[in-house]
Amino acid sequence: MKFLLNLYLDAADPPGEGFDHEGFLAASGQAGELISAHAFADPSLSTAVRVRGGVVAVADGPYLPTSEHVAGQYVVDCESRERAVELATLLSSGQVCGVEVRPLMDSAGMEM
Amino acid sequence: MSASERLEDLLRELAPQVLGVLLHRYGGFEECEDAVQEALLAAAMQWPAEGVPESPRSWLVTVASRRLIDQVRSEQARRRREATAAVREAPDAGLAPDPGDEGPRDHDDTLTLLFLCCHPALTPASQVALTLRAVGGLTTAEVARAFLMPEATMAPRISRAKQRIKAVGASFEMPSAQERPDRLDAVLHVLYLIFNEGYTASSGPDLHRGELTTEAIRLTRMVHRSLPDDGEVAGLLSLMLLTDARRAARTGPDGALVPLAEQDRNLWDAAMIEEGTALVTASMSASPLGPYQLQAAIAALHVQAPRAADTDWEQIRILYAILTRIAPNPMVTLNHAVAVAMTRGPQAGLELLESLDGDPRLARHHRLHAVRAHLQELAGEYAAARENYRLAALLTTSLPEQRYLRARAGRLER
Lengths: 112, 414
Description:
Chain A is of the alpha+beta class and 112 residues long. Chain A has helices at residues 22-30, 81-89; strands at 2-10, 34-39, 47-52, 55-60, 68-77, 98-103. Chain A has a four-stranded antiparallel sheet, with helices on one face. A two-stranded antiparallel ribbon of chain A has the order 3-4. Chain B has helices spanning 3-26, 29-50, 56-78, 105-117, 124-135, 140-146, 151-167, 180-199, 207-226, 231-244, 270-286, 291-304, 313-326, 330-344, 346-354, 366-378, 382-395, 399-411. Chain B is 68% helix and 0% strand. Chain B has 414 residues and is mainly alpha-helical. Mean pLDDT of chain B is 89; it is low at 83-101. Chain A binds chain B through residues 1, 29-36, 77-79, 103-112, and chain B through 123-126, 129, 147, 149-150, 153-158, 160, 197, 200-201, 204-206, 209, 250, 257-260, 263, 370, 374, 396-402, 404.
């Protein structure tokens, strides 16, 4: 099963030392579970694009003006949700205020 | 079949045999397996241009042995001071292959190799990947593609599995009589996982993944050839054939899932149905009953009916009741509830479903809600059915299932 791990930071927290994901990268990389990794730029650099009834609205700044925001994400393929949660615990320390473990949709299915 | 497909089939058939010979001569699973992969690659490059050698198997054994020795020498040169060589050469090991050393041992070797690749020290995902590479003769890139994964993810998964086998000291030999039933269960489970991975994806953009069903059937046939009297091996092979026989009918032209009751039965593969039915009939009369045989028998009853309305649900209900007793699990109960609903009315089926409420294994699982919705629809409780179809659609992680469940909910819209 493939899972997205969303790493949340809180802009209200004082800036820290950055991430230490060595443990996570070693564990998921060696086991052949890590599929992709992205670190995001600061949300102030985002542009939100909305199209309503053919009208395009473009605004500088994040889509959601919350203090907590996604700062990066990993995609892993693991045996179970439990294993994905175990990997997430390796990420949720220091600056990271939380990790969202979310399944990805699969293009395969069973007939019912 | 094109010449290149014939060549590929030949190479994949020979892959576990050649690996078996190398393991007998030299030992060292990790190194031997790499050497065989290199030899297969060399054959795939050279044979189309130069022709298939007279004894393809000996050619592969010779080339793989050379690669292995080269590898060991360069390894030794690099780590001269290390006391132990990675590979020990058996005293009588010669490079020249014995002419005609093919035979029944090859079947046993393939089986022994499967036991090794499905070793309990490995996770199921690693067992699957290693089996496809070492026994199936697929390259790492092919295994990765079949699972929609980058090669960079699959390669460490396979090498970690090989290291783990070395670390736990597992060797290339048949498990003891005591261990054997459990180890065979693990092998069958891995073959079943490979089949399912392909079967659920056997249409649309996932065709490469769909080839896994063919591969699972091929490997299960090999095991059946080695263990013709094992009822569960025959049962699994039968289950795969009877399930795959419906492949062409299970998705519509637009890729949408077609439920069993609505499939065009003319599209089912008659030859596979015949073979699968014969296999399960023979094994159930000769061997102790097991879960794969029961599931195959149920699949056989489904495909025997000329129309969905002719399905012998009473027999199916009885088989699910036996399956619930010998291999209880919530998925079996869900199917049992459908069979109960079809024979004793939807309310009886819904009552059986209540036994699953609060089962932690089904928490947040879409299938309980999907089955409940289906039975409520049969009972004429349309509003409740619609809600449960919607809930199931939210919870599934499969796009085609979600599309199907939303369409069912939509049909009940007023």
